[in-house]
Amino acid sequence: MAKKGIVITVGIIINFLVSSVGISQLIETDIVDKKLSYFISQEDKLGSKIFVNSANHISGKGIAQPVIYEREEENLPNLLVYYFYYESDSTIDYILYEWDEINFIGYDSAKVKSREELNFYVERFKILKKGFVSKFGESEGWGSIDEEKIESGSFVRSDEWNRQEKTNLDLSISITNHVKEGRFSMHPYHRIRLYVKNPPKRESSSLPAISDSLLTESKLLLDLLLENLKNEKIEKIREFFSETVNNQISEEQIKALRREINFDKKLNLFYYGYQANLNMDYFLVLFYNYDMNTGSEIKEGVKLILDVNNEVVGLQTFKMQ
After folding, report:
1. What are the backbone angles phi and psi of residue 173, rounded to the nearest 5°?
2. 44-70 pLDDT, tens per residue?
3. How far apart are CA 18 and CA 123, in angstroms?
4. How do the domains of the chain map onto residue ranges?
């Protein structure tokens, strides 16, 4: 998949050096008030092609299904660029840049990669981050890139640049380079994502302070939710979730989540903070680690996401190293 040698001097051009081959990609970081037609023009100049995807993307009210372009790459999966725009006037809401082979081969066909192959992902992430740090300053981040365990382990690294009234950036790399067989099988996946988002609809100062009482209330809510989940009280569980989420989740999804949670282990809060979704609405995100992992590099437990009304909009299990 050879990259076409085209450079457009608009926005930020970040030059990627992969092996001995020089590659240029256009990464737009200024999307305020820009319309879809502008980005279509840029993709045409790059020689990109439309990517057809039958998936239904859930976005905010008035946001159309994305227009997706495919750009050819070398040593990485082809880059997909998703343009999410408002139906009313075609102005861009946010852009997603995604390097993920699953888009082309499917989840079940993903294979374990060599250290050399994985290095291309790590280097691309580092070059992107370096460019953004140089332009916008240091990021707020979590997770780490464990290069010693890259071939056999899993890691996630995420960096955010929240720039007030300007576009915000969210860059992440997710690597799971092993196969897990059994009741809950896991296939390898290797992914880099970059979200470029328009400014929040409201100032973060309008959010409630994350006080000890708020954290206590959140833990009590989680405990009650997990108790009902353990006892398979499906209708009672639904009372905890927001109306939007209840319209999207099935009873089977709830039961599948139940099977993944270890109800015998105590959960301890180890990370929390406000994060914005793709429509720039803020949510309180809390990570709870199983007590058995105390002092360990492995973090495994439950992720709880609450909206401003203290209703559950997300409940997931996680594992990171």
Report:
1. -130, 135
2. 999 999 998 767 676 666 788 899 999
3. 8
4. 12-197, 204-320
Residue (of 138, 125, 237) closest to 174 by Cα position = 125
Q: Which of 170, 14, 40, 17 is nearest to 97 (CA)?
A: 170
Q: How far apart are CA 254 and CA 269, in angstroms?
A: 23
Query: Residue 13: which of 132, 143, 167 has the closest Cα?
Result: 132
Residues in the chain: 321
Count, in order, helices (H) and strands (E) of the chain: 7, 14
pLDDT in tens, 145-175: 877 767 666 788 899 998 766 788 999 998 8
Location of structure tokens 């909206």? 307
DSSP label at 186?
Answer: B
- CATH T-level topology, domain 204-320: Nuclear Transport Factor 2; Chain: A, (3.10.450)
Per the CB < 8 A criterion, the answer to whether 83 and 11 are in contact is no
- Evaluate the CA torsion angle 303, 308, 310, 312 in order and state its sign: negative
Give the angle subtended at the CA of 172 by the CAs of 168 and 178, to the nearest 5°: 165
- Report the 10 Å Cβ neighbour count for 193: 16
Half-sphere exposure of 245 (CA within 13 A, CB side): 16
Identify the pLDDT of residue 235.
86
Spatial distance between the Cα atoms of 66 and 87, rounded to a whole number of angstroms: 10
User: Torsion angle, CA of 210/212/214/215, rounded to 10 degrees?
Assistant: 90
The answer to whether residues 48 and 40 touch, using CB atoms and an 8 Å cutoff, is: no
- The helix-helix angle for 251-260 and 212-230 (nearest 10°) equals 100
